[in-house]
Amino acid sequence: MVAPSWAVLALAWLATLTLLSKLINLCHRRQKKLPPGPKPWPIIGNLNLVGSSPHQSFHMLSKKYGEIMQLKFVSFPVVVASSPEMAKQFLKTHGKTFASRPATAVGKYTSYNFCDMTWAPYGPYWRQARKIYLNELFSPKQLDTYDYIRVEELRALISRLYALSGKEVAIREHLARFMLTNVSRMALGDKYFSESKSDSSVKLDELREIFLDLQGYVKRMKDLYRKLDKFHNYVIDDHKARRAGDKDFVAKDVVDVVLKLADDPNLEVKLTSDCVKGLIQGYVKRMKALYRKLDKFHNYVIDDHKARRAGDKDFVAKDVVDVVLKLADDPNLEVKLTSDCVKGLIQDPIAGGTDTSSVTVEWAIFELVKQPQFLRKATEELDRVIGRDRWVEEKDIP
Ligand code: HEM
């Protein structure tokens, strides 16, 4: 018998491998039961279907694809639940599976490698962090000890607004400043930002800039998107014009190919893969720069707190930094707090409590101003319950 040549053997192997990979793919496809959803476009996925109010776009799409559907944001699959029953499935029935946030670059570069509570994956560290926030940092007793800060800052805010009466006021700026001063004084202590104290070691505006930067990625991504969109429209118009004037047109680049694919004349092709890459790389670089600033600031605050504690035998914890540093020394703590975890836990209330609270108050003021009948009703209730001789206090809230 003639031995088969190496070429025949290689061909036989190749054919077997191809067959195997096809079979595996087929099995995978059968196993994967993906939710229904619109067909994604190359590169942009389904981004063309998501408008400036995403919740409304999701609602419209769910009418067509059902209470659970899959969309693609660029190349990321996103599953959208749109009914109380589906929400229960994700949040309760399979709550633990979906409890962690996706591990994005923001958590890695701006939150000490997921070492704060916001970005930590669900598990023993996250549960311990939650216990620390509930029982130690923001327990009703601890919140009472910060009462004087909230009273001082509220009076300072009202005085500033009163001094501006009759003039146009950008309330957003005042509220953001008020919340940041409040939360950072509770978290880090009086020394650093109290507006009433002239020996502030860190300028409030500087800190504000850092934290707004931390929160502002979404806003700035939108700005960047608008700029990119303008640029893309220009590129696309240019390509279309070139194509229109040429009967034997041959696609030469990505834009040509995508435009050719897009039979729908209304489809907006907004992102080329290069732009997506540029966008992501630019942000990681800025996140790293922001991290360096934040870390320097945290080191300064922590060293200062440690020095204060070292010189005082009867030391009593006064702010979040004091409490977290005390816990970091506790040998019985379930998950040891490293110095990065200390910084992450200190950062969370400032990053999470500032913008959220001020935007909520701004929204409430806006709604009241828009609907004078409710403003009248609220004023009447304040006059009746509180009167005009004193300020509203926290204990007035039922
Ligand atoms: C009106 C004000 C606020 C709003 C609307 C708000 C909203 C939210 C939302 C929607 C989440 C995500 C919840 C989730 O994914 O399950 C969250 C998480 C969080 N918020 Fe707030 N928040 C507010 C005030 C605050 C304040 C004052 C603080 C701290 C002082 C704070 C600290 C946090 C932290 C640490 C997390 C992460 C919790 C976790 O990972 O489980 N927030 N907040």
TrEMBL record:
Keywords: Heme, Iron, Metal-binding, Monooxygenase, Oxidoreductase, Signal
First and last residue of the signal peptide: 1-20
Pfam family, any one: p450
InterPro entries documented for this protein: Cyt_P450, Cyt_P450_E_grp-I, Cyt_P450_sf
Cofactor(s) named in the record: heme
Superkingdom of the organism of origin: Eukaryota
GO molecular-function terms, A-Z: heme binding; iron ion binding; monooxygenase activity; oxidoreductase activity, acting on paired donors, with incorporation or reduction of molecular oxygen
Gene3D superfamilies registered for this protein in UniProt: Cytochrome P450
SUPFAM superfamilies according to UniProt: Cytochrome P450
Family listed: Belongs to the cytochrome P450 family.
The protein, known as: Uncharacterized protein
Species the sequence originates in: Camellia sinensis var. sinensis
